[in-house]
Prior knowledge:
mainly beta; eight-stranded antiparallel beta barrel; 11 strands
Amino acid sequence: MARMSPLSRSHLSRALLAGAVLALLPACLKPGPRIPFDHGRGYMVLATASQRWLNDRYVHGYVPYGLEVVSMTPGSAGWGWEFSAHLADDTGEDKERKVFRPTFQPSGQRVKFNVSVPTERDTEFYEVSAGVRQAFFLDSRIQPYFGVGTSVFYLRERDDLEGTFVLTNPNNPAETATVTAVDESEREWNFGVYMRTGLAWRLTGDQEGKRLGTFFTTDLRGMLGTYFSSVEFVFGFGFGR
């Protein structure tokens, strides 16, 4: 057999390399296994309701209603964003320490009193939240998820102070004065960070996320805030893919 010259071997090596590249190029350019939403952004739009418990003196628990939007990033294997807004109002009772400085007659003495006044507080809650979410098994009917984010609450509080009080001059028990508590209102802000985990059920629609479907979600969410903290069970129903 005739031996191949070094030059011939070099040309052959280059030819084989070029052939291998041409053979592998289609495989390299071919899309990998489809991750849901690779062909477009996935999303869910949900109407939500929850039972929320607080560590607040007046409102120990209430039911917020809201709207939640979840946007799944294409090709991210389940990472996405979540945004929500909620409204609620509730009423609770406690007592407030109020300061009165009546002037007693006929002595004209003015004395300071600290009085515990029964109070009924009506609170309106306005909340917006934003965070990130990691969902799993996106091609399944049941999809676990985990999320973290921040919440901002704007609160309008109106206090109905109940009571008219007859106060006695400690320096002259024969002198009395009548005082009435006046209703008050104030505004508060609460800034918090939350963590949640739950399940999303795809009730209708295809499991590849190509067609619009309906979803039911439920999760447990905890929030640590500057004015109050909370824990809640959240339920949602809506559409998406």
